[in-house]
Amino acid sequence: MASDDWTALSRPLERALGKRTAKALERLGLKTVEDLVLHFPFRLAHRGELMPISQVREGESVTVVAQVLSASLRPMNARKGFLLTVRIADGRNELGLTFFGKAMRPLQYHERRLQAGTIATFSGTISSYRGELQLNHPEYEIYDDEPDLSKISQPIPIYHATEKLPSWHIERAIAAVLPTLTAADFPDPLPAGYRALHHLPSRFDAIHALHQPPEDKAWEQANARMKHEEAFVLQTSLAQRAAQARGRKVSAFPATAGGLLQAFDERLPFALTDGQVTVGGEISSEIATCVPMQRLLRGDVGSGKTIVAVRAMLQVVDAGGQAAFLVPTEVLAWQHLRTIEGLMGELAMGGQLGSSTQSTRVEILTGSLTAGQRRKALARIASGEAGIVVGTHALLSEDVQIPFLGLAVIDEQHRFGVDQRDSLASGVHTLVMTATPIPRTIAMSVFGDLDVSTLRELPQGRAGVTSTLVPLHNERWMDRAWERAAEEVASGGRVFVVCPRIDADQPEDAEQSEESEQLDAFGDDEAPTDASRLASSRAHEQEQLNVPGTDIASKDEVHSAVATHDFLTGRLPGITIGMLHGRMKPDEKAMAMERFASGQAPILVATTVVEVGVDVPDATLMIILDADRFGLSQLHQLRGRIGRGTKSGLCLAVTGVASGTLAHDRVEAFVSTTDGFELAEKDLELRSEGDVLGASQSGGQSHLRFLSVVRDAPTIEVAREASRALVHDDPDLTLHPELAAAVATLDTGRAHYMEKG
Ligand code: ADP
Ligand code: MG
């Protein structure tokens, strides 16, 4: 026999379990004993309480525990052969099983085993026959009347399985290898003290409890332990990163009196908001020291982050440094250049004729500069003449020398990878800004190495918006809504009426709709997706849409811009109703906006094409039809179009869905707060985890198997505190080699997902 060089964990499954089983397991990507024991069940089943058949879906591989109601064997009608049909039930719902065969015998075997009353686990792929879901030739395992009563109460782990490899085969394979392993095979990254404090089992015990739980509680504790482990390792990695960054010394840029910053503040046409003052103070004192600032500034679109950044940059320039402003797109780069130059006025005319002595230059670097322009810009940057450089990733190229760089501002960080951040911002003060309403827990997981500041209020004494839910089927409310629109127009206001689709023919795609909502949840200041992508899956019903005079949409129908425009034209005679949607030509859109802004057509029926940039200060009322059809943060962005002037806004979220449904909950959440961050957190709560992890930069499946960044905030916080303290005392983790190893493994994977940006 050949010598066995493998450790207990690295042993190939073929050696441990034989060729056939190994082959089947390989289909799940499991090759070694370690792979197998780290393949965990995703839920528990119980012999007493049967699993819900109601949750099975066509095309899915399922495992259900159910009881046989009846079995009948008969010859097939149209073809030769026999058919065994079995009805099973889980106490609430029934499901049919079918077995076909040329010969009667094998079917008789199943019939004998599957007598009425038999309880078994059935596993197979759900298919549909004549509109009914069923399982064809499922695998099944009958629970014999075990004399061992203790085992009856023991939960059954259910693994993600395939038709060829039902859950209980995996269970048995694991049972075969587990006894060959010892605690030494599972070094524990969690410090013993932390485990004791939170009553967490060791890694070894947890792995056993996950596969062979004596009872639910042990399984839950094991799950909790794994969550803590994932949170702890991730937070340790982030804490190390932060500590390393802080360990480097950088130049200090103390605030100076009588410099550009002071002149800038004096010429600002408005007062800073309290938030801008507070955050500005934090930043100012941080860049005044040699400890590199590592700060994330979150603030809704329009909260005034740019000014905070410009003020910090000017403090740096005043103290003899340079500052770079990295943005994700060319368009944004030019927009920022114009904004900054506009705010600075003559302070930005450094080196130009007639410029005040107290000035600097703002340079732009993007991919679209000609070679000549680029050369000149580079020279002015290299000489220090340009104090501020705005640019896209072109800023990061090697020939760009910013010799006195002291502050890097990175706008919309989520578009950049950690490496890009490092390449500009290592060894300098760093300010990262985002308008994405990232919930706190995700911020802690993704930007955990940064300190977080938040701008919560919007500037310029905006009167703000009140939001109200309006039930579509309450005629009085709807009448009142349209009356209100007329009143608003009469008093010189403008009214948006937003619809989820353009017209009945609008092509639709349910999947796309989901995708757009997912993107939307992490949306930034770009235009919301066009309504077409949010179209419902009920186009055919749209044809029955009632036309003018009556209800615009009865139950189950979705309002379209075209029909709503017709309806309102009849409903509000004397008021010109405009229309704006994604299928109009650019000049038609511009015309519609102009007529709306000028008051020629003071009511605008629009799809979500009402972009973020749209700024009509007189717009005071927004009626969103079928509000349940929009993503929460999209609703929030839409609402941001009104109440921009001195008059407060009213947003009516109209929905026909019944209260108590998830869709209704979302609309309720929307009207209950105007805080974009709170909304983002609610959005997460109301979404399924899969959506969130699939769409966000949180890395998701790549390394978080147990931890939910949505639901496990307390765990994440506890782990964050403890890991920071640990890194503070033991920065290189010399006293925690198991943790160090886990962090090293994680960092490799993490570098990967952060790059996707
Ligand atoms: P964002 O946070 O989305 O980057 P901006 O910095 O672009 O927001 O600011 C949005 C608008 O608000 C700009 O026109 C800016 O000049 C204006 N603004 C910023 N701060 C104030 C303030 N304190 N008072 C009035 N207007 C302000
Ligand atoms: Mg901005």
Task: Please characterize this protein's 3D structure.
With 757 residues, the chain is of the alpha/beta class. 39% of the residues lie in helices and 17% in strands. The protein is built from 27 helices and 21 strands. A seven-stranded parallel β-sheet has the order 11-12-10-13-14-9-15, with helices on both faces. Helix 15 links the parallel strand 13 and strand 14. The longest helix is centred in the first third of the chain and has 32 residues. 43% of the residues are buried. The protein binds adenosine-5'-diphosphate (ADP) and magnesium ion (MG). The site of adenosine-5'-diphosphate (ADP) has 16 residues, from helix 12.
Topology diagram in text:
Blueprint: H1 13-17, H2 19-26, H3 33-37, E1 43-45, E2 61-75, E3 82-89, E4 94-101, H4 104-113, E5 119-129, E6 132-136, E7 139-142, H5 149-152, E8 156-158, H6 167-177, H7 192-197, H8 203-211, H9 216-247, H10 260-267, H11 274-287, E9 294-299, H12 305-318, E10 322-326, H13 330-344, E11 361-365, H14 371-382, E12 386-391, E13 405-411, H15 418-425, E14 429-434, H16 440-446, E15 451-455, E16 465-471, H17 475-490, E17 494-498, H18 510-521, H19 539-542, H20 561-571, E18 577-580, H21 586-598, E19 603-606, E20 619-624, H22 632-639, E21 649-655, H23 662-672, H24 676-686, H25 689-695, H26 713-729, H27 737-756
Parallel strand pairs: 4-6, 9-14, 9-15, 10-12, 10-13, 11-12, 13-14, 16-21, 17-19, 17-20, 18-19, 20-21
Antiparallel strand pairs: 1-8, 2-3, 2-5, 3-4, 5-6, 5-7
Helix pairs in contact: 8-9, 9-26, 9-27, 10-12, 11-12, 16-26, 18-25, 23-24
The structure holds adenosine-5'-diphosphate and magnesium ion (MG).
